[in-house]
Design a protein that fits this description.
5-stranded parallel β-sheet, single chain
């Protein structure tokens, strides 16, 4: 009999196909598990798959008395209460670095689209204004990449790939991270210092209580009127109300966002602004990334059901 895995978050069925070949899946479709399955079915659950951003705290864990493994699909695990999991001897796994290249690519895409005003330029062509030689203040020359100061907040797998891509564009790279690394980039001791220095702030930090709204009105103000912010980590890192104000009053020049505080609902006050570019959290959404993430998930579940440590485990808080 195949081992059972509870699918705790909502995922497309196509993304679960490889798991279904190995395990018996109990798919909640993103609904509360108790509404979909009986208590008898859930009492025997030993492992579950979740999206890293889905809230999964002590109360939810206690619904599954035999739960021994929580595996996150993707790199993030900010929704999981690691202390609660550790107290219950529940191993937590994820897919570290599996989608780093794809997310870094989206970061670059958003930065270029924002700083070079690609959406505005696209509309300028589509509207016929270019053919009519109609002047547009939005089409004035913008600063290019050579010599531009790019600040990377968070120097993990994704941050490093962003930095390497920016360096290839002949930009200056600086970073702030919890640790200083042996890297060919300028290190700044605080986020404030990094924001003062750079003209584009690339947010690649892991989400958590310590980074909640850390990019606030003060940090945005330090970027200045020619500054941009790009976020491909989690929406919680930016204070969205402060961002709306900064974009509206031209405190900063623009923003590129792949993530939002309450997904999939980007606030109207934000999406109405012309100096921002958006994507629907598709940073890691490439064929290669999904295969890599699924490989990590399969390895984690395979090890767990064999009584072995998770090869891609998260350390407890």
């Amino acid at each position: 009999m195949a081992d059972k895995v509870l699918i705790y978050s909502r995922f497309p069925k196509t993304m679960m196909a490889r798991f279904a070949e190995r395990f018996e899946l109990l798919d909640t479709g993103g609904k509360p598990a108790r509404e979909v399955f009986s208590a008898e079915e859930l009492n025997g659950i030993r492992a579950m798959l979740t999206a890293g951003g889905t809230a999964l705290g002590a109360e939810a864990m206690d619904l599954f008395p035999k739960l021994g493994a929580i595996v996150c699909y993707g790199t993030g695990y900010d929704g999981v209460d690691l202390n609660a999991a550790a107290a219950r001897n529940i191993a937590v796994g994820h897919s570290p670095g599996a989608n780093a290249a794809s997310v870094a690519d989206i970061a670059m895409t958003l930065m270029l689209a924002t700083t070079r005003r690609i959406l505005v330029a696209d509309q300028y062509v589509r509207s016929g204004d270019w053919a009519a030689s109609k002047p547009s203040p939005m089409m004035r020359p913008q600063a290019g990449m050579p010599g531009r100061r790019i600040g990377v907040y968070g120097m993990g797998e994704i941050g490093r790939k962003i930095a390497a891509r920016c360096a290839a564009f002949e930009s200056e790279i600086g970073y702030f991270s919890r640790s200083k690394y042996d890297l060919p980039y300028q290190y700044f001791p605080t986020l404030e210092a990094l924001a003062d220095w750079c003209s584009v702030l690339m947010i690649a930090v892991r989400a958590g209580a310590e980074t909640q709204h850390v990019v606030n009105a003060d940090i945005l103000g330090r970027l200045g009127a020619d500054g941009y912010v790009v976020n491909i980590s989690r929406g919680s890192v930016i204070d969205e109300k402060a961002l709306v104000a900064a974009l509206s009053d031209k405190t900063i020049a623009g923003a590129g966002l792949d993530v939002f505080e309450k997904e999939p609902h980007a606030p109207d006050a934000l999406t109405a602004l012309p100096n921002a570019v958006f994507a629907p959290h598709l940073g890691g959404h490439t064929l290669e990334s999904h295969v890599a993430m699924q490989n990590c998930v399969l390895a984690n579940f395979g090890a767990f059901f064999e009584g072995k440590p998770l090869p891609y485990g998260v350390k407890s808080a």
